[in-house]
Amino acid sequence: MPSMHAYTMTPKDYQDLIDRGWRRSGHYCYKQDNTKTCCPHYTIKCDALNFKLSKSHKKIIKRMNRFLRDGKRGKNDEELNSSMTSEKPDGENMEVEMNNEGCGIRDVVEAPNVPLKNINLEAFAKANEKGKSNEKQPGVQKPKTNAMEIDKNSTQNNETPNNSKNSTDGANPPCKKAKQMRLERRLAKQAAKGLPAVIENKPSKSQEKSLKEFLNDAKPDDKHKLNFELIHVKSKEFFKTLPMTYALYKKYQTLIHKDPPNAEQEYLDFLQRSPLKLTKPSDGPPLGYGSFHQQYYLDDQLIAVAVIDILPYCVSSVYFFYDPDYSFLSLGTYSSLREIELVQDLASKVPALKYYYMGFYIHSCPKMRYKGKLSASYLLCPEAYTWHPLSDEIRLKLDANKYQRFNDDPLARDENEFEESDMDLVLLMIDQSSYVKYRQYRQRSMNLVAAIRNKIAGSDDHAAIVEYGKLVGKPLAHRMLYLKM
Question: For 103, which of 140, 337, 367, 392 could close a Cys bridge (C-beta 3.0–4.6 Å)?
Protein backbone atom coordinates (compact mmCIF):
# COMPACT_ATOMS: atom_id res chain seq x y z
CA MET A 1 0.00 0.00 0.00
CA PRO A 2 1.61 3.30 -1.06
CA SER A 3 2.07 5.67 1.85
CA MET A 4 3.93 8.76 3.00
CA HIS A 5 4.26 11.05 6.01
CA ALA A 6 3.11 14.61 5.51
CA TYR A 7 4.78 17.30 7.58
CA THR A 8 2.44 20.06 6.50
CA MET A 9 0.08 20.73 3.63
CA THR A 10 -2.63 23.16 2.68
CA PRO A 11 -6.29 22.06 2.77
CA LYS A 12 -6.25 22.39 -1.03
CA ASP A 13 -3.32 19.94 -1.21
CA TYR A 14 -5.23 17.37 0.82
CA GLN A 15 -8.43 17.95 -1.16
CA ASP A 16 -6.49 17.07 -4.32
CA LEU A 17 -5.00 14.01 -2.61
CA ILE A 18 -8.32 12.53 -1.51
CA ASP A 19 -9.66 13.14 -5.01
CA ARG A 20 -6.96 10.68 -6.10
CA GLY A 21 -7.89 8.03 -3.53
CA TRP A 22 -5.65 9.07 -0.60
CA ARG A 23 -6.68 9.23 3.06
CA ARG A 24 -4.87 10.33 6.20
CA SER A 25 -4.44 9.07 9.75
CA GLY A 26 -2.65 11.74 11.72
CA HIS A 27 0.34 12.75 9.58
CA TYR A 28 0.34 9.37 7.84
CA CYS A 29 -1.19 9.40 4.35
CA TYR A 30 -2.01 6.21 2.48
CA LYS A 31 -3.60 5.02 -0.74
CA GLN A 32 -5.04 1.57 -1.44
CA ASP A 33 -3.71 -0.43 -4.39
CA ASN A 34 -7.02 -1.85 -5.56
CA THR A 35 -5.41 -4.05 -8.20
CA LYS A 36 -3.65 -6.08 -5.48
CA THR A 37 -5.85 -6.02 -2.38
CA CYS A 38 -8.47 -8.68 -1.75
CA CYS A 39 -10.98 -6.00 -0.73
CA PRO A 40 -10.81 -2.98 -3.07
CA HIS A 41 -11.43 0.37 -1.37
CA TYR A 42 -13.17 3.02 -3.45
CA THR A 43 -13.33 6.67 -2.38
CA ILE A 44 -16.97 7.63 -1.84
CA LYS A 45 -18.65 11.01 -1.47
CA CYS A 46 -22.22 12.23 -1.03
CA ASP A 47 -23.69 15.30 -2.69
CA ALA A 48 -25.08 16.85 0.49
CA LEU A 49 -27.28 19.35 -1.36
CA ASN A 50 -29.16 16.51 -3.04
CA PHE A 51 -29.23 14.14 -0.08
CA LYS A 52 -32.61 12.54 0.66
CA LEU A 53 -33.57 11.09 4.00
CA SER A 54 -34.55 7.42 3.98
CA LYS A 55 -37.11 5.86 6.30
CA SER A 56 -34.30 4.34 8.34
CA HIS A 57 -32.65 7.75 8.75
CA LYS A 58 -35.93 9.28 9.91
CA LYS A 59 -36.43 6.51 12.46
CA ILE A 60 -33.00 7.14 13.95
CA ILE A 61 -33.59 10.90 14.14
CA LYS A 62 -37.03 10.38 15.69
CA ARG A 63 -35.53 7.99 18.23
CA MET A 64 -33.02 10.63 19.23
CA ASN A 65 -35.66 13.38 19.36
CA ARG A 66 -37.95 11.18 21.46
CA PHE A 67 -35.13 10.48 23.90
CA LEU A 68 -34.30 14.18 24.16
CA ARG A 69 -37.97 15.03 24.66
CA ASP A 70 -38.91 12.59 27.42
CA GLY A 71 -35.80 10.53 28.21
CA LYS A 72 -37.47 7.30 27.12
CA ARG A 73 -35.59 4.76 25.09
CA GLY A 74 -38.53 2.96 23.49
CA LYS A 75 -39.24 -0.74 23.13
CA ASN A 76 -36.68 -1.58 20.45
CA ASP A 77 -33.98 0.96 21.17
CA GLU A 78 -31.65 -1.60 22.69
CA GLU A 79 -31.47 -3.36 19.34
CA LEU A 80 -28.97 -1.58 17.16
CA ASN A 81 -29.88 -1.01 13.56
CA SER A 82 -26.94 -2.98 12.21
CA SER A 83 -27.89 -2.34 8.60
CA MET A 84 -27.51 1.39 9.17
CA THR A 85 -24.48 1.34 11.43
CA SER A 86 -21.80 -0.87 10.29
CA GLU A 87 -20.35 2.17 11.62
CA LYS A 88 -18.51 4.87 10.25
CA PRO A 89 -15.31 4.02 8.80
CA ASP A 90 -12.57 6.16 8.11
CA GLY A 91 -14.86 8.24 6.53
CA GLU A 92 -13.60 7.57 8.50
CA ASN A 93 -15.51 9.35 10.57
CA MET A 94 -15.95 6.74 9.36
CA GLU A 95 -13.83 4.43 10.83
CA VAL A 96 -15.67 1.40 10.35
CA GLU A 97 -16.84 3.88 12.44
CA MET A 98 -18.42 6.20 9.90
CA ASN A 99 -19.61 4.85 12.36
CA ASN A 100 -19.34 1.49 13.02
CA GLU A 101 -21.60 0.69 15.62
CA GLY A 102 -19.86 -2.36 16.58
CA CYS A 103 -18.27 -3.50 13.36
CA GLY A 104 -14.82 -4.95 13.78
CA ILE A 105 -13.53 -3.79 10.42
CA ARG A 106 -11.98 -0.40 10.03
CA ASP A 107 -11.24 1.53 6.95
CA VAL A 108 -9.26 3.95 8.99
CA VAL A 109 -5.65 2.97 9.09
CA GLU A 110 -3.72 3.91 12.19
CA ALA A 111 -0.36 5.39 11.30
CA PRO A 112 2.72 3.28 11.98
CA ASN A 113 4.67 4.55 14.96
CA VAL A 114 7.39 6.22 12.90
CA PRO A 115 8.56 9.60 14.22
CA LEU A 116 8.66 12.43 11.75
CA LYS A 117 12.09 13.69 10.89
CA ASN A 118 12.91 16.99 12.58
CA ILE A 119 13.09 19.64 9.90
CA ASN A 120 12.72 23.39 9.80
CA LEU A 121 9.44 24.07 8.04
CA GLU A 122 9.56 27.81 8.50
CA ALA A 123 11.98 28.09 5.59
CA PHE A 124 9.26 26.75 3.34
CA ALA A 125 6.33 28.81 4.61
CA LYS A 126 6.04 30.61 1.29
CA ALA A 127 6.63 27.56 -0.90
CA ASN A 128 3.18 26.32 -0.76
CA GLU A 129 -1.76 27.63 -1.10
CA LYS A 130 -26.65 16.95 -7.58
CA GLY A 131 -29.99 15.57 -8.65
CA LYS A 132 -33.55 15.73 -7.76
CA SER A 133 -34.92 12.44 -6.58
CA ASN A 134 -38.25 11.74 -8.25
CA GLU A 135 -39.82 10.09 -5.27
CA LYS A 136 -43.30 8.90 -5.88
CA GLN A 137 -46.03 10.00 -3.57
CA PRO A 138 -46.05 7.14 -1.07
CA GLY A 139 -49.78 6.59 -1.16
CA VAL A 140 -51.09 4.28 1.50
CA GLN A 141 -51.43 0.76 0.21
CA LYS A 142 -54.47 -1.37 0.86
CA PRO A 143 -54.11 -3.67 3.80
CA LYS A 144 -53.32 -7.22 2.81
CA THR A 145 -56.45 -8.39 4.56
CA ASN A 146 -58.89 -8.03 1.69
CA ALA A 147 -59.64 -10.35 -1.22
CA MET A 148 -56.63 -12.69 -0.85
CA GLU A 149 -57.10 -13.13 2.87
CA ILE A 150 -60.86 -13.56 2.53
CA ASP A 151 -60.27 -16.20 -0.09
CA LYS A 152 -57.81 -17.97 2.22
CA ASN A 153 -60.22 -17.88 5.18
CA SER A 154 -63.17 -19.03 3.14
CA THR A 155 -61.17 -21.94 1.78
CA GLN A 156 -60.28 -23.01 5.31
CA ASN A 157 -64.03 -22.98 6.17
CA ASN A 158 -64.99 -24.83 2.99
CA GLU A 159 -66.85 -21.75 1.82
CA THR A 160 -66.65 -19.87 -1.44
CA PRO A 161 -65.91 -16.12 -1.36
CA ASN A 162 -69.50 -15.43 -2.50
CA ASN A 163 -70.94 -17.21 0.53
CA SER A 164 -68.73 -15.54 3.11
CA LYS A 165 -70.04 -13.05 5.60
CA ASN A 166 -68.06 -10.32 3.88
CA SER A 167 -69.75 -10.70 0.51
CA THR A 168 -72.66 -8.67 -0.76
CA ASP A 169 -74.59 -9.88 -3.78
CA GLY A 170 -71.67 -12.11 -4.71
CA ALA A 171 -69.07 -9.33 -4.67
CA ASN A 172 -66.55 -8.26 -2.03
CA PRO A 173 -67.12 -4.72 -0.76
CA PRO A 174 -64.22 -2.32 -1.33
CA CYS A 175 -61.87 -2.11 1.63
CA LYS A 176 -61.32 1.37 3.00
CA LYS A 177 -57.81 2.68 3.21
CA ALA A 178 -56.39 3.16 6.68
CA LYS A 179 -55.88 6.84 5.95
CA GLN A 180 -59.55 7.26 5.02
CA MET A 181 -60.67 5.41 8.15
CA ARG A 182 -58.56 7.65 10.38
CA LEU A 183 -60.04 10.72 8.69
CA GLU A 184 -63.61 9.48 9.23
CA ARG A 185 -62.92 8.79 12.91
CA ARG A 186 -61.46 12.25 13.38
CA LEU A 187 -64.45 13.91 11.68
CA ALA A 188 -66.86 11.82 13.80
CA LYS A 189 -65.15 12.97 17.00
CA GLN A 190 -65.34 16.60 15.89
CA ALA A 191 -69.05 16.21 15.08
CA ALA A 192 -69.73 14.58 18.48
CA LYS A 193 -68.18 17.58 20.19
CA GLY A 194 -70.26 19.97 18.09
CA LEU A 195 -67.15 21.22 16.31
CA PRO A 196 -67.08 22.11 12.62
CA ALA A 197 -65.57 19.48 10.36
CA VAL A 198 -62.02 20.63 9.66
CA ILE A 199 -59.64 18.74 7.41
CA GLU A 200 -56.00 19.68 7.83
CA ASN A 201 -53.99 19.91 4.68
CA LYS A 202 -50.67 18.25 5.43
CA PRO A 203 -47.56 19.33 3.51
CA SER A 204 -47.13 17.64 0.15
CA LYS A 205 -44.02 15.62 -0.63
CA SER A 206 -42.41 18.70 -2.13
CA GLN A 207 -42.92 20.46 1.23
CA GLU A 208 -41.47 17.65 3.34
CA LYS A 209 -39.29 18.71 6.23
CA SER A 210 -35.62 19.21 5.49
CA LEU A 211 -32.77 17.37 7.22
CA LYS A 212 -32.09 20.46 9.33
CA GLU A 213 -35.73 20.61 10.43
CA PHE A 214 -35.75 16.92 11.34
CA LEU A 215 -32.52 17.18 13.32
CA ASN A 216 -33.30 20.44 15.10
CA ASP A 217 -36.73 19.64 16.49
CA ALA A 218 -35.85 20.51 20.09
CA LYS A 219 -38.41 22.19 22.35
CA PRO A 220 -37.72 24.39 25.40
CA ASP A 221 -39.34 21.85 27.71
CA ASP A 222 -37.35 18.85 26.45
CA LYS A 223 -35.91 16.72 29.24
CA HIS A 224 -32.44 16.64 27.64
CA LYS A 225 -30.44 19.10 25.55
CA LEU A 226 -28.01 18.00 22.84
CA ASN A 227 -25.36 20.58 22.03
CA PHE A 228 -22.39 20.64 19.67
CA GLU A 229 -18.99 22.30 19.81
CA LEU A 230 -16.78 22.48 16.70
CA ILE A 231 -13.18 23.12 17.77
CA HIS A 232 -9.88 23.17 15.91
CA VAL A 233 -7.42 20.44 16.90
CA LYS A 234 -4.76 22.96 17.93
CA SER A 235 -7.04 25.34 19.82
CA LYS A 236 -7.07 26.05 23.54
CA GLU A 237 -10.54 24.53 23.73
CA PHE A 238 -9.18 21.22 22.42
CA PHE A 239 -6.55 20.90 25.13
CA LYS A 240 -8.97 22.12 27.78
CA THR A 241 -11.33 19.23 26.94
CA LEU A 242 -8.57 16.68 26.28
CA PRO A 243 -9.04 14.77 29.57
CA MET A 244 -12.73 14.22 28.74
CA THR A 245 -12.21 13.27 25.08
CA TYR A 246 -9.36 10.89 25.87
CA ALA A 247 -11.37 9.19 28.63
CA LEU A 248 -14.27 8.75 26.20
CA TYR A 249 -11.94 7.33 23.54
CA LYS A 250 -10.50 4.78 26.00
CA LYS A 251 -13.99 3.66 27.01
CA TYR A 252 -15.00 3.33 23.35
CA GLN A 253 -11.92 1.32 22.38
CA THR A 254 -12.32 -1.02 25.33
CA LEU A 255 -16.06 -1.74 25.12
CA ILE A 256 -16.78 -1.43 21.39
CA HIS A 257 -13.59 -2.68 19.73
CA LYS A 258 -12.38 -4.83 22.62
CA ASP A 259 -8.93 -3.29 22.17
CA PRO A 260 -6.57 -2.16 24.91
CA PRO A 261 -6.78 1.64 24.95
CA ASN A 262 -3.97 3.61 23.34
CA ALA A 263 -1.82 5.83 25.48
CA GLU A 264 -2.70 9.52 25.37
CA GLN A 265 0.23 10.27 23.06
CA GLU A 266 -0.94 7.60 20.61
CA TYR A 267 -4.44 9.04 20.76
CA LEU A 268 -3.05 12.48 19.90
CA ASP A 269 -0.92 11.08 17.07
CA PHE A 270 -3.94 9.30 15.62
CA LEU A 271 -6.77 11.80 16.05
CA GLN A 272 -5.30 15.20 16.92
CA ARG A 273 -2.06 15.59 14.96
CA SER A 274 -2.79 16.86 11.48
CA PRO A 275 -0.63 18.12 8.62
CA LEU A 276 -3.39 20.50 7.52
CA LYS A 277 -2.64 24.17 8.08
CA LEU A 278 -5.52 26.22 9.44
CA THR A 279 -6.40 28.74 6.74
CA LYS A 280 -9.09 31.40 6.97
CA PRO A 281 -9.67 33.07 3.60
CA SER A 282 -12.23 35.86 3.50
CA ASP A 283 -14.51 33.79 1.26
CA GLY A 284 -14.13 30.60 3.29
CA PRO A 285 -16.15 29.08 6.17
CA PRO A 286 -16.26 31.05 9.46
CA LEU A 287 -13.87 28.70 11.31
CA GLY A 288 -11.64 28.27 8.27
CA TYR A 289 -10.29 25.14 6.58
CA GLY A 290 -8.40 22.53 8.56
CA SER A 291 -8.86 19.67 11.04
CA PHE A 292 -11.57 19.82 13.71
CA HIS A 293 -13.33 17.82 16.42
CA GLN A 294 -17.11 18.09 16.62
CA GLN A 295 -18.03 17.31 20.23
CA TYR A 296 -21.52 16.07 21.22
CA TYR A 297 -22.74 17.09 24.68
CA LEU A 298 -25.86 15.56 26.20
CA ASP A 299 -26.72 18.17 28.79
CA ASP A 300 -23.18 18.69 30.18
CA GLN A 301 -21.85 15.20 29.44
CA LEU A 302 -19.57 14.48 26.47
CA ILE A 303 -21.05 11.46 24.67
CA ALA A 304 -19.40 11.50 21.22
CA VAL A 305 -16.64 13.07 19.13
CA ALA A 306 -16.48 13.30 15.34
CA VAL A 307 -13.04 13.94 13.84
CA ILE A 308 -13.39 15.81 10.54
CA ASP A 309 -11.43 17.81 8.00
CA ILE A 310 -13.06 20.86 6.44
CA LEU A 311 -11.65 21.29 2.92
CA PRO A 312 -12.38 23.60 -0.03
CA TYR A 313 -15.00 21.28 -1.54
CA CYS A 314 -16.05 18.99 1.29
CA VAL A 315 -16.24 17.88 4.87
CA SER A 316 -14.15 14.72 5.11
CA SER A 317 -15.00 12.31 7.91
CA VAL A 318 -11.87 10.96 9.62
CA TYR A 319 -13.10 9.05 12.68
CA PHE A 320 -15.94 8.84 15.17
CA PHE A 321 -16.12 7.52 18.72
CA TYR A 322 -18.88 7.62 21.30
CA ASP A 323 -20.00 6.52 24.76
CA PRO A 324 -21.15 2.88 24.50
CA ASP A 325 -23.85 3.64 27.10
CA TYR A 326 -25.68 5.47 24.32
CA SER A 327 -25.38 2.84 21.61
CA PHE A 328 -29.18 2.57 21.55
CA LEU A 329 -29.24 5.98 19.81
CA SER A 330 -27.35 4.65 16.74
CA LEU A 331 -24.89 7.48 17.11
CA GLY A 332 -22.75 6.32 14.19
CA THR A 333 -25.46 6.92 11.63
CA TYR A 334 -26.80 9.92 13.52
CA SER A 335 -23.39 11.61 13.36
CA SER A 336 -23.16 11.08 9.61
CA LEU A 337 -26.50 12.89 9.25
CA ARG A 338 -25.22 15.68 11.47
CA GLU A 339 -22.13 16.00 9.28
CA ILE A 340 -24.25 16.18 6.14
CA GLU A 341 -26.20 18.95 7.82
CA LEU A 342 -22.89 20.70 8.55
CA VAL A 343 -21.99 20.51 4.85
CA GLN A 344 -25.36 21.97 3.91
CA ASP A 345 -24.84 24.82 6.35
CA LEU A 346 -21.31 25.53 5.07
CA ALA A 347 -22.51 25.37 1.46
CA SER A 348 -24.91 28.24 2.17
CA LYS A 349 -21.81 30.37 2.81
CA VAL A 350 -19.29 28.63 0.50
CA PRO A 351 -21.20 27.18 -2.50
CA ALA A 352 -18.28 25.03 -3.66
CA LEU A 353 -18.19 23.20 -0.31
CA LYS A 354 -21.09 20.82 -0.93
CA TYR A 355 -19.78 17.27 -0.58
CA TYR A 356 -19.47 14.85 2.30
CA TYR A 357 -16.57 12.39 1.98
CA MET A 358 -17.09 9.12 3.83
CA GLY A 359 -13.72 7.52 3.31
CA PHE A 360 -13.76 4.22 1.48
CA TYR A 361 -16.63 2.13 0.15
CA ILE A 362 -15.81 -1.59 0.41
CA HIS A 363 -18.47 -3.43 -1.55
CA SER A 364 -17.04 -6.86 -0.72
CA CYS A 365 -17.64 -6.19 3.00
CA PRO A 366 -21.39 -6.26 3.77
CA LYS A 367 -20.90 -4.30 6.99
CA MET A 368 -19.33 -1.46 5.03
CA ARG A 369 -22.08 -1.10 2.44
CA TYR A 370 -24.10 1.20 4.66
CA LYS A 371 -22.17 4.12 3.18
CA GLY A 372 -23.73 3.41 -0.17
CA LYS A 373 -27.19 3.88 1.35
CA LEU A 374 -26.74 7.63 1.51
CA SER A 375 -28.54 9.01 -1.52
CA ALA A 376 -26.67 10.96 -4.17
CA SER A 377 -23.43 9.04 -3.53
CA TYR A 378 -20.56 8.76 -6.00
CA LEU A 379 -17.54 6.48 -6.36
CA LEU A 380 -14.13 7.53 -7.66
CA CYS A 381 -12.80 5.65 -10.67
CA PRO A 382 -9.41 4.27 -9.58
CA GLU A 383 -7.90 4.77 -13.03
CA ALA A 384 -9.38 7.89 -14.63
CA TYR A 385 -10.15 9.62 -11.29
CA THR A 386 -13.63 10.58 -12.43
CA TRP A 387 -16.78 10.42 -10.26
CA HIS A 388 -19.67 8.04 -11.00
CA PRO A 389 -23.10 7.65 -9.32
CA LEU A 390 -23.30 4.58 -7.10
CA SER A 391 -26.08 2.93 -9.11
CA ASP A 392 -27.54 -0.56 -9.08
CA GLU A 393 -25.61 -1.19 -12.29
CA ILE A 394 -22.31 -0.47 -10.55
CA ARG A 395 -23.32 -2.65 -7.60
CA LEU A 396 -23.98 -5.55 -9.98
CA LYS A 397 -20.59 -5.05 -11.58
CA LEU A 398 -18.91 -5.09 -8.18
CA ASP A 399 -20.83 -8.27 -7.30
CA ALA A 400 -19.35 -9.90 -10.39
CA ASN A 401 -15.84 -8.52 -10.01
CA LYS A 402 -14.44 -6.77 -6.94
CA TYR A 403 -12.18 -4.49 -8.96
CA GLN A 404 -13.83 -2.13 -11.43
CA ARG A 405 -12.86 0.77 -13.63
CA PHE A 406 -16.05 2.83 -13.39
CA ASN A 407 -15.29 5.01 -16.40
CA ASP A 408 -16.62 3.07 -19.40
CA ASP A 409 -14.61 5.10 -21.89
CA PRO A 410 -11.42 3.09 -22.49
CA LEU A 411 -9.72 6.22 -23.81
CA ALA A 412 -10.48 8.33 -20.73
CA ARG A 413 -7.28 9.16 -18.87
CA ASP A 414 -6.28 10.88 -15.69
CA GLU A 415 -6.29 14.62 -16.47
CA ASN A 416 -3.41 15.13 -14.02
CA GLU A 417 -1.37 12.15 -15.14
CA PHE A 418 2.30 12.49 -14.30
CA GLU A 419 4.79 11.61 -17.01
CA GLU A 420 8.56 11.38 -17.25
CA SER A 421 8.66 14.79 -18.93
CA ASP A 422 7.13 16.33 -15.79
CA MET A 423 10.14 15.40 -13.66
CA ASP A 424 12.00 18.67 -14.17
CA LEU A 425 9.50 20.68 -12.10
CA VAL A 426 9.27 18.30 -9.12
CA LEU A 427 10.32 20.11 -5.95
CA LEU A 428 13.01 18.32 -3.96
CA MET A 429 14.04 19.15 -0.41
CA ILE A 430 17.77 18.55 -0.17
CA ASP A 431 18.47 19.93 3.32
CA GLN A 432 16.73 21.78 6.13
CA SER A 433 17.10 25.21 4.60
CA SER A 434 16.68 24.87 0.85
CA TYR A 435 14.95 23.08 -1.96
CA VAL A 436 15.46 22.81 -5.70
CA LYS A 437 13.56 21.71 -8.75
CA TYR A 438 14.58 18.37 -10.12
CA ARG A 439 16.27 19.88 -13.16
CA GLN A 440 18.41 22.06 -10.88
CA TYR A 441 19.21 19.11 -8.71
CA ARG A 442 20.20 17.07 -11.75
CA GLN A 443 22.52 19.80 -12.96
CA ARG A 444 24.00 20.23 -9.50
CA SER A 445 24.44 16.52 -9.09
CA MET A 446 26.65 16.40 -12.14
CA ASN A 447 29.15 18.55 -10.26
CA LEU A 448 28.42 17.58 -6.64
CA VAL A 449 27.51 13.92 -6.81
CA ALA A 450 29.72 13.00 -3.92
CA ALA A 451 28.46 15.81 -1.70
CA ILE A 452 24.77 15.02 -2.04
CA ARG A 453 24.90 11.31 -2.69
CA ASN A 454 23.36 10.61 0.69
CA LYS A 455 20.57 13.14 0.25
CA ILE A 456 18.70 12.63 -2.99
CA ALA A 457 21.07 10.86 -5.31
CA GLY A 458 21.03 7.74 -7.42
CA SER A 459 18.84 5.96 -9.95
CA ASP A 460 16.69 4.45 -7.17
CA ASP A 461 15.65 7.96 -6.12
CA HIS A 462 14.71 8.75 -9.68
CA ALA A 463 12.38 5.75 -9.82
CA ALA A 464 10.90 6.61 -6.42
CA ILE A 465 10.22 10.19 -7.49
CA VAL A 466 8.51 9.02 -10.68
CA GLU A 467 6.29 6.69 -8.65
CA TYR A 468 5.51 9.51 -6.21
CA GLY A 469 4.53 11.80 -9.11
CA LYS A 470 2.19 9.20 -10.59
CA LEU A 471 0.49 8.63 -7.23
CA VAL A 472 -0.09 12.28 -6.31
CA GLY A 473 -0.56 13.64 -9.85
CA LYS A 474 1.30 16.33 -11.76
CA PRO A 475 -0.10 19.46 -10.01
CA LEU A 476 0.77 18.21 -6.51
CA ALA A 477 4.16 16.89 -7.59
CA HIS A 478 4.96 20.41 -8.75
CA ARG A 479 3.47 22.03 -5.64
CA MET A 480 4.53 19.87 -2.68
CA LEU A 481 8.09 19.28 -1.47
CA TYR A 482 9.44 15.75 -1.81
CA LEU A 483 11.77 14.68 0.99
CA LYS A 484 13.82 11.51 0.82
CA MET A 485 13.72 10.00 4.31
Answer: 367
The answer to whether 399 and 369 have CB atoms below 8 angstroms apart is no
Clarify whether residues 232 and 355 are in a common domain: yes
For residues 387 and 437, state if they share a domain.
no
Question: 260 and 317, same structural domain?
Answer: yes
Direct distance between the N- and C-terminal alpha carbons of the chain, in angstroms, rounded to an integer: 18
Question: Domain containing 455: what range?
Answer: 420-483
Measured from the Cβ of residue 336, the count of other Cβ atoms closer than 10 Å reads 30
Do 303 and 446 share a domain, yes or no?
no
Question: Is 0.85 topped by the overall pTM?
Answer: no
Q: Name beta bridge partners: 296.
A: 228, 304
What is the total count of domains within the chain? 2
Q: pLDDT averaged over consecutive 10-residue blocks of the chain (485 residues)?
A: 91 97 94 89 96 94 95 63 43 40 49 65 54 46 44 46 46 66 81 70 66 92 95 96 96 91 91 95 95 97 97 97 96 95 97 96 82 90 95 92 93 92 82 74 60 50 87 93 76
**Is residue 93 one of the residues assigned to a domain?**
no
